[in-house]
Design goal:
Length: 411
């Protein structure tokens, strides 16, 4: 059962950094949330209004608290466990859509900040999509290049770059045909590790089913968003184009959503989604999104949890990108990797990460030349060892000291 609690003036229900799975609803009183701005290092204060939730993202995602909660005047608060919150959420259609839109907007804001830092904001949508197509072409993924080009020509038939897109498409088409003639069926066979059964029993939605072949682009970054997808079988690769280079963001599997952000906030796509294996997914329009979410609360809850994870992951990356010193930025990448893939022995200072220098450059938002130079400095001081497919950090505590010193100096 939810608990009703009274907090006196000056009380602190939780501190930033706490591990706490409670969700709160303010009934009356004055409560503020104090967090640290990632870019400036200054304190940011937000006041909670009566009837509003706080502590949701960290509780659902099981992440450390991002803010400290302070009671400024006597407050009445409803405290729920995650299970109690999920039950409340699932039974309230208005709450479902409100929280999905709030979390989607938060994630979109972080994407925009990252795009600004990396200077990946194109002058218009067609130019951005052309950059995506060109990045596929440069990596000899000609089928994917063709898919993006066709999307540009279909959605923007009067674009000022249509002739350039058409030329790229024809060149990629010819190269794809030549390459396809040399690839056997076995080489592009589907990954069936997820099984053929849908994660959700949704027979009423079978008419929305679509299938995609390996390498086929389902949605392109910067494309207008008018549909979202639920994977039934196969895996989908999320990709972001950063200054002409593709960065792999995630691999989505059976039962996961993609494309939902553009539906919720009417914005262009923030990433490219490509079929990694043969994929069967349900394609839903913007018009029936709310009906699907409110009629299937478990799907909405899964999506809300996915937003929590993505917001946390993107904020973690944003903290890396705002570091000005390149050596400290790389140190923070290794710290992040250690958080993502902790050592089996928590007392060990030595960490092995299955990444390349190119991978580290992408995480850090640095050119490969700059990254190699800074990596060599680490190597010379015997702080890391670099191999073809992995990197060993001799003492992760050294990386934490480097990153912390740079953070103090910067702010």
């Amino acid at each position: 059962m939810p608990r009703f609690m009274q907090y006196t003036k000056g009380s602190i229900p939780y501190f930033a950094g706490d591990q706490d799975d409670r969700v709160f609803i303010l009934q009356k009183g004055i409560v503020i949330l104090t967090s640290v701005d990632i870019e400036t290092g200054s304190s940011v204060t937000d006041q909670v209004k009566p009837g509003e939730f706080f502590g949701v993202k960290s509780a659902l995602g099981h992440f450390p608290r991002e803010e400290t909660v302070t009671v400024l005047s006597e407050a009445s608060v409803v405290v729920l466990t995650v299970v109690e919150f999920e039950k409340l959420f699932s039974g309230n259609k208005q709450l479902i859509m409100k929280m999905l839109r709030v979390f989607s907007n938060q994630l979109r804001q972080i994407h925009r900040k990252i795009g600004t830092i990396l200077n990946v904001i194109p002058e218009d949508q067609t130019t951005g999509m052309l950059e995506v197509a060109q990045s596929f072409y440069d990596d000899e993924q000609f089928r994917s290049c063709c898919d993006v080009c066709l999307k540009i020509l279909k959605r923007f038939p009067r674009s000022h770059i249509k002739d350039k897109v058409a030329k790229l498409y024809e060149d990629a088409r010819i190269r794809n045909e030549k390459m396809s003639a040399r690839v056997s069926f076995d080489e592009v066979s589907s990954d069936t590790s997820n099984g053929s059964a849908s994660c959700f029993d949704l027979p009423a939605f079978e008419r929305f089913a679509k299938t995609y072949e390996p390498g086929q682009v389902i949605i392109s970054e910067f494309e207008p968003g008018d549909a979202f997808y639920l994977i039934q079988t196969g895996t989908v690769q999320l990709i972001k184009c950063v200054n002409g280079t593709k960065k792999n963001l995630d691999i989505l599997k059976m039962g996961e959503f993609f494309g939902e952000m553009a539906i919720l906030d009417n914005s262009p796509r923030s990433a490219t989604c490509m079929a990694k294996t043969r994929v069967k997914c349900l394609e839903f329009s913007k018009e029936n999104f709310e009906v699907l979410m409110t009629g299937n609360p478990q799907l909405a809850l899964n999506l809300l949890k996915l937003f929590c994870k993505r917001i946390y992951d993107q904020k973690r990356r944003f903290r890396i990108l705002v570091i000005k010193d390149p050596q400290a930025r790389l140190a923070n990448v290794f710290i992040m990797l250690n958080e993502m893939y902790p050592s089996a022995n928590p007392d060990s200072r030595i960490c092995k990460f299955n990444v390349t220098v190119a991978d580290v450059a992408q995480w850090a938002g640095l050119s490969q030349d700059v990254t190699r130079t800074e990596i060599n400095r680490f190597v010379e001081k015997r702080r890391i060892e670099v191999f073809d497919n992995y990197i060993i950090v001799s003492n992760i505590s050294d990386m934490k000291r480097i990153a912390r010193a740079a953070e103090v100096a910067q702010h």
